[in-house]
Design goal:
The complex is a heterotrimer. Chain A is built from three helices and six strands; from the N terminus they run βββαβββαα. Chain A has helices spanning 34-42, 81-87, 96-107, and strands at 3-6, 10-13, 17-22, 50-57, 62-69, 74-80. The longest helix of chain A has 12 residues, at 96-107. By secondary structure, chain B is of the alpha+beta class. Chain B folds into seven domains: 1-56 and 70-115 and 123-162, Roll (Ubiquitin-like (UB roll)); 165-275 and 417-484, FAD/NAD(P)-binding domain, CATH 3.50.50.60; 278-412, 3-Layer(bba) Sandwich (FAD/NAD(P)-binding domain); 519-591, Arc Repressor Mutant, subunit A (Orthogonal Bundle), CATH 1.10.10; 614-669 and 761-855, Gyrase A, domain 2 (2-Layer Sandwich), CATH 3.30.1360.120; 671-757, Aminomethyltransferase beta-barrel domains (Alpha-Beta Plaits); 903-1002, Aminomethyltransferase beta-barrel domains (Elongation Factor Tu (Ef-tu), domain 3), CATH 2.40.30. In chain B, the strands form 13 sheets. In chain B, strands 8, 9, 10, 11, 12, 13 and 27 form a seven-stranded mixed β-sheet that branches. In chain B, strands 39-40-41-38-32-42 form a six-stranded mixed β-sheet. Chain B has a six-stranded antiparallel beta barrel with strand order 43-46-45-44-47-48. In chain B, helix 4 crosses helix 5 and helix 18 crosses helix 23. Chain B is elongated and about 115 Å long. Chain C is α+β, with helices and mostly antiparallel strands. Chain C folds into two domains: 13-55 and 135-232, 2-Layer Sandwich (Gyrase A, domain 2), CATH 3.30.1360; 57-132, Alpha-Beta Plaits, CATH 3.30.70. Chain C is built from seven helices and 13 strands. The N and C termini of chain C lie far apart (35 Å). In chain C, 55% of the residues are buried. Classes of the chains: A alpha+beta, B alpha+beta, C alpha+beta. Chains in contact: A-B, A-C, B-C. Chains B and C meet through strand 8 of B and helix 4 and helix 6 of C.
């Protein structure tokens, strides 16, 4: 059985985790074009190679990020979402560019 | 055999290290008493009593006896009262055990089905594929007849399952195989600081050293290591433990009689040894023809002579050790038939040179460049061999010489026990020139040691084991001790040693085909050489195809003795090398395992609310919802003693009671999420479809959840308990996912809010019915009047002294209060409400009645009335989607979908239930051609998602998806019910009951 | 929420009664003092399991939890997935940097949970209360001195390596036990290897019987609170 290293709980059997899908960058849900939105919702790269994924340690409900090679099925590293966001180029976190705007809009 | 079983073949001590001569035992075989000793296997005790015949072969019903004495062949499958297909050479004899042969008709000795053997050319390879595929369906006829002939044992259907369980094990270094290599590896690894598990499928440590011919010093050396292993605090030894499979990251399934171990190792040492291989000649399956190692096992492990007069077929020098052992045990060795030209030149050690001379001086004839061409039997046992000179590879001279014997020992070659290594992606290669095997592509963290890598000399095996064990320990994380350099283990030059020692162990071509066949390649499946050759002639040239076509290697021994021979034959006929031909893929399990091993103790959690004792007392009938057990309906109270309560009558009674008086239902399984913090409202706004920041404290609002694709995935009620606190309910089955999803989004949004799943911290009831307020007023410390506590209000109050969250809701469509209290107070709350409600005729109702009540109100159940495509608009719930909100999860998709228009809608329908019963999942058909019994050409235009008899309306009601055009009130729907009949239903406006909503808001 | 005066029962009450249990008032309800059939108010020869579900427990979660708890004078574990024992015997569990649980002492009269609850009710802090007395049952598995049978029992129901030399005293794991989410804490008791299991209250019966089943080969049986309290004196 494969194992996964949770940044909070350490190395555990894969059965302790829930897969949360690829870590996609959400386009601005208000401003983006229809095509961009459809691409984001319905199309997935199914990339052969390195991907970034959401994983949740079920017992502690802790979400984190794993970089995984889908060809070799090896996990390259795992990290907290905050660390991943800090690593990523500014503005590339999903929806980050628009969240502030949403907050303002919704709070009106 | 008519003579009594008297253990005539039993030797005196020190032969037989596994048996205890002080503890005799007796069991029966085929109804006849068999004497043996504690420690005997069924097979060893039988051979001690000169009973070789143990089973009949699968296809031709040929007599078969032990081949390996190691539990690695299918020749010894016997029937026990509780278990068929038991390996007689593995299973320990037990006092009083009743053992029978299997796969015969009449008696084991005179099997009437053995006539098959005479007509074997009617059963050529691929026979079943060729004979029974036409006409269609004929297989069903033949299968019964074939099963009867080819059936293995009989299953005892009354057998009481034994308790088996599972355990997790952990270690730094796991060593599979406790022979000299495994023992040395385990000791070296443990001495280097590693935490070690050593496992072996046998009952004692030592592996081949327990039965092979070793010098006194060699044996001493192994015993010394064994003693140190047993005493080592860092080594755990598991015997009778078969490592049956390798899984990712060194996760091993280790099977023992009563327990399945799941072992996680950091490093793995495979010291699984070799399987001896048979020679291929006519009659090589006759009882009495055995592996050289099998003879040695019989002698040293069980103190049993295989026979009185033996011939040894030699393809390597180990055969001479076998011959010497036989001589020492008092067996006459009629001849050593050596396949090689000049074996003496190949002998490595002086000891072995002396061995050969000893044989000659004992008068044993050594025939060089000769082979056994045919073995023949009488009464199912070997009587003589036909020995001929070899003239070319695989060919014998016409001149024959007959040697009488009752035992033939074959020592012609070995194959590594490669199965686990190959399960882990390893590759088995074969060098055609040296007839040597090697394993490559070894997974990280796996190490191979001992005879499986071609080492044979005991001291190089031990030294290699030590080096491997040390290396494995050094590669473990957090092992500091082993980092101290320990150069003594690095001196071995493996390649050189392998070259020297492995040379001559495998004879390259111990195969002599006979014009009349019966040279068995696969004993399990009764395949002889010609079958393999014919398979390739039929066009199946790839070894994988040969396997599937001929079934070679598919029997219980999984190719242990057929893989090499089959590969050689296929290679020969296809003009390839054995290396190019290869062997078939190894898959788990390594050895057959009872299903009970996997079916043993497993865990299926059951959840009960804290009101469970009350439900049981009221004789509820429970139904399972996920892990939850919930009251479906109650069989009490009864109207009178004579009343029989059925599911249907209970549901109607409970529904009517809620509509007319007051009922109480346990809603504890409902999900609950506390969202607390300054951004609580903002989080709900982004998550759910409606707007929440304007909800006043003390009020609640329906919360509908869609995913980003606009599909409805959950619903609940969001209660504003405080400015910074929402208590949100979720569906029973959906809450865990809703909670996880909420957390996931907030890791991105980083709102100042805390999210806690409080589902099991709280339990709750719904008190519903026109008299609900009167009941609750007796227990509640706050005003419940409609003005103080209107519909959709929420309050923190005390009910019966218990701190509660009280919600005014209308799920069942009557005046209703949901009272949520901390879990352990549930029991107290339930009984307080029942007591307070007694004057008003309160009674509990189950979730079946609740489902009917909600359906009468037209409320959807997520998951039942929704599917993976359902949008709020299809559910006619556009009212729950905020139009003034820039963002929520499904907003953009729903906006886009709105432009496209709907394809279908969920509508309510009523029908006359006396015409037939419409059930969930029944289909709606296009009735444009009129109602007809022939629905094959009709178009499906929708399906029913909920359906029930409505006691309040007195007719059938339901919800169904309907394509647009048939959704208008008054439209008729043609629904195909069970049996193909159609029932017509009418679309009506929702809700079915109390459309003015007067009752829930009173 | 203030605690009402109603005494609650463990979900295992009926199981305890069937074993002839004598109860004692504890925490928010009653706990088993001892089981009548054993006559003795002590641990079993090999291995014992105690139902501590009614002993007070409380949780706090939120960004200001650490600060607030420290202001209350409580010493906190410094790393997630570890525990500390306070001088009066209460156990503090750190589940993450923002979540702590408090387990009141079994041996001593202590009401730290009550005090923290009162203090929390009066404060306005970004730390939110969790009713752990109700959401989670609590079991205590205690070996005989020198025995590791508690660890062996755990290895039949939990896939995390909890052996004493790999899982230090007061180490904690959030994991799956008998396929239920659970928090496992090693909390040795006077030289006895022991583990606390905190898991879903509504599956308390399932967990109890799963552990009892796993304990059977070590002759493990239920024991009452007196085993702890008397031995502590």
């Amino acid at each position: 059985m494969k194992q996964l290293k949770c940044p909070l709980n350490g190395l555990r059997n894969i059965t302790e985790f829930t897969y949360g899908g690829e870590f996609h960058v959400q386009p601005d849900p208000v401003e983006c074009t229809k095509e961009e939105w459809v691409e984001y919702i319905f199309f997935h790269d199914n990339h052969a190679g390195e991907v970034v994924e959401w994983w949740c340690h079920s017992a502690s409900s802790y979400w984190f990020v794993a970089r995984r090679n889908t060809i070799t099925d090896t996990v390259i590293e795992t990290m907290s979402v905050a660390d991943h966001m800090a690593d990523s180029t500014a503005g590339h976190a999903p929806g980050n560019n628009t969240l502030k705007a949403q907050q303002v809009i919704n709070r009106d | 055999m008519t003579e009594p079983f008297n253990q005539a073949n039993r030797l005196d001590a020190p032969w037989g290290i596994l048996i205890d001569r002080n503890t005799p035992l007796c069991f029966s075989f085929e109804g006849k008493a068999v004497d043996g000793y504690q420690g005997d296997t069924i097979a060893s005790a039988l051979i001690a009593n000169q009973q070789w015949l143990m089973s009949r072969s699968f296809k031709y019903h040929r007599p078969r006896g032990p081949l390996t004495m190691a539990g690695q062949d299918a020749n010894t499958l016997v029937q026990l009262p509780s278990a068929p297909n038991t390996l007689a050479d593995k299973y320990l004899a037990v006092n009083g055990l009743r053992v029978m042969g299997q796969n015969y008709k009449g008696s084991l000795k005179y099997d009437r089905l053995a006539v098959n053997g005479l007509f074997s050319r009617f059963l050529p390879v691929g026979f079943y594929y060729k004979a029974f595929f036409r006409p269609r369906g004929i297989w069903d006829y033949w299968v019964k007849i074939i099963r009867k002939q080819a059936g293995l044992g009989v299953i005892d259907v009354d057998h009481q399952a034994v308790y088996r369980d599972k355990q997790y094990l952990f270690c730094d270094v796991a060593v599979v195989g406790a022979g000299p290599a495994g023992l040395s590896a385990a000791l070296a690894a443990a001495d280097s600081g590693a935490d070690v598990i050593l496992m072996d499928e046998n009952t004692i440590l030592g592996g081949s050293s327990n039965y092979s011919r070793l010098s006194h010093q060699q044996l001493e050396r192994v015993v010394d290591i064994k003693t140190r292993v047993e005493a080592h605090p860092r080594i755990r030894v598991y015997l009778n433990a078969t490592c049956n499979s390798w899984h990712a990251e060194h996760w091993l399934a280790v099977v023992t009689e009563k327990r399945l171990y799941k072992l996680r190792a950091q490093q793995l040492v495979m010291a699984t040894g070799v399987f001896e291989q048979q020679a291929i000649f006519r009659g090589n399956d006759i009882p009495g023809v055995i592996m050289g190692s099998a003879a040695q096992r019989l002698l040293r492990l069980y103190g049993v002579k295989p026979g009185q007069r033996a011939v040894v077929l030699a393809g390597n020098d180990e055969a001479y050790a076998v011959a010497l052992d036989l001589l020492e045990a008092g067996v006459t060795v009629a001849a050593v038939v050596d396949l090689r030209e000049a074996s003496l030149n190949l002998l490595q050690s002086e000891a072995q040179t002396r061995a050969c001379q000893a044989l000659l001086s004992s008068g044993v004839e050594i025939l060089r460049n000769h082979s056994v061409f045919e073995a023949t039997s009488k009464n199912g046992h070997l009587t003589q061999v036909d020995v001929r000179q070899i003239v070319a590879r695989g060919e014998c001279a016409p001149h024959s010489r007959t040697i009488c014997c009752d035992t033939l020992c074959m020592s012609v070659g070995y194959m590594p026990v490669y199965q686990l290594v190959c399960q882990a992606g390893g590759q088995l290669s074969y060098d055609d020139d040296s007839a040597r095997f090697s394993l490559s592509n070894i997974v990280d963290g796996m190490h191979l040691s001992g005879s499986m890598v071609g080492l044979w000399n005991i001291s190089s095996v031990i030294e290699n084991g030590q080096a491997i064990g040390f290396a494995a320990a050094g590669q473990c994380a957090n092992n500091d001790e082993s980092k101290q350099s320990n150069a003594q283990f690095d001196v071995l030059n493996l390649d050189v040693l392998q070259d020297v020692e492995a040379r001559g162990l495998n004879h390259p071509w111990p195969m002599f085909l006979h014009p009349k066949g019966k040279e068995f390649v696969d004993y399990d499946e009764d395949l002889h050489a010609r079958d393999i050759l014919n398979a390739t002639r039929d066009g199946y040239e790839h070894i994988q195809l040969v396997k599937r076509y001929s079934t070679c290697g598919m029997g219980p021994s999984q190719g242990r003795h057929s893989a090499l021979a089959a590969a050689r034959l296929v290679a020969d006929i296809t003009h390839k090398t054995v290396a190019e031909t290869g062997v078939t893929t190894a898959r788990p399990p390594f050895a057959s395992e009872p299903l009970g091993v996997n079916a043993g103790r497993s865990f299926y959690p059951r959840k009960y609310t804290s009101m469970q004792p009350a439900h049981e007392a009221a004789k509820a009938v429970f139904l399972q919802a996920g892990s939850w057990y919930r009251p479906a309906y109650y069989t009490t109270p009864k109207l009178n003693e004579a009343q029989t309560v059925t599911r249907e009558s209970a549901i109607i009674d409970e529904v009517n009671h809620v509509r007319s008086k007051v009922g109480l239902v346990d809603v504890s399984t409902l999900g609950g999420i506390d969202v607390r913090g300054p951004d609580a409202g903002e989080l709900l706004n982004r998550f759910y479809t409606s707007t929440f920041h304007k909800v006043a404290v003390g009020k609640s609002k329906y919360a509908l959840l869609t995913n980003e694709a606009g599909v409805v995935i959950d619903d609940g009620i969001a209660c504003r308990m405080a400015e910074d606190h929402f208590y949100v309910t979720a569906t029973t089955g959906g809450v865990d996912r809703v909670f996880q999803t909420m957390l996931k989004w907030n890791t991105l949004w980083a709102l100042d809010v805390d999210i806690a799943n409080v589902t099991t911290a709280w339990c709750g009831v719904n008190l519903a019915g026109p008299l609900a307020r009167k009941v609750l007023e007796k227990l509640c410390d706050c005003s419940l009047s409609n003005s103080d506590f209107p519909y959709m209000g929420v309050k923190e109050a005390r009910v019966a002294g218990i701190p509660s969250r009280v919600l005014r809701v209308g799920f069942v469509g009557e005046l209703g209060f949901e009272i949520h209290v901390p879990q352990l107070y549930g029991d107290a709350l339930w009984s307080a409400l029942l007591t307070a409600g007694e004057p008003y005729g309160i009674r509990p109702f189950g979730i079946e009645a609740q489902r009917v009540l909600r359906l009468e109100k037209g409320h959807v159940i997520i998951g039942q009335d929704t599917d993976a495509m359902s949008t709020p608009h299809e559910l006619q719930m556009s009212w729950a989607v905020a139009k003034d909100k820039a963002f929520f999860l499904g907003a953009r998709t729903l906006t886009e979908l709105a432009e496209r228009g709907l394809d279908r809608k969920l509508v309510g329908f009523t029908y006359d239930n006396s015409l037939g019963e419409i059930k969930e999942s029944h289909l709606l058909l296009d009735d444009s051609v009129g109602v007809s019994a022939d629905s094959r050409n009709a178009t499906m235009i929708g399906r029913v998602t909920s359906s029930a008899y409505s006691p309040s309306l007195g007719c059938g009601i339901g919800l169904a998806y309907v394509t647009l055009g048939k959704t208008l009130e008054g439209s008729t729907l043609s629904i195909k019910i069970d049996g193909g009949r159609r029932v017509v239903a009418t679309v009506v406006k929702l809700p079915f009951y109390d459309p003015q909503l007067l009752r829930q808001e009173m | 929420m203030t605690i009402p005066s109603i005494s609650v029962k463990s979900p295992l009450h009926a199981d305890h009664l069937a074993l002839d249990a004598e109860f004692t008032a504890r925490g928010i309800g009653s706990a088993v003092a001892y089981y009548g059939e054993q006559h003795a108010e002590q641990f079993n020869e090999q291995l014992s399991i105690l139902d501590l579900s009614c002993i007070n427990r409380i949780g706090f979660k939120g960004v200001q939890t650490c600060t607030w708890l420290e202001q209350q004078g409580v010493t906190l574990p410094q790393t997630p997935n570890s525990a500390t024992v306070l001088p009066a015997g209460q156990i503090m569990l750190r589940l993450s940097s923002t979540e702590h649980w408090v387990l009141d002492s079994v041996t001593k009269d202590s009401d730290l949970c009550g005090q923290l609850r009162d203090s929390h009710n009066r404060s306005d802090v970004k730390s939110y209360l969790l009713e752990r007395n109700h959401s989670h049952a609590c079991f205590y598995i205690v070996s005989e001195p020198g025995s590791t049978s508690a660890a062996e029992t755990m290895s039949k129901i939990c896939a995390v390596d909890l052996r004493p030399h790999r899982f230090a005293n007061l180490a904690m794991a959030q994991t799956s036990v008998a396929r239920l989410n659970a928090v496992v804490v090693r909390h040795d008791h006077l030289g006895r290897l022991a583990y606390l299991i905190l898991s879903d209250m509504t599956a308390a019966q399932f967990m109890w019987h799963s552990v009892l089943d796993a304990m059977q080969e070590f002759d493990g049986r239920p024991a009452g609170l007196n085993a702890i309290t008397l031995e502590a004196k």
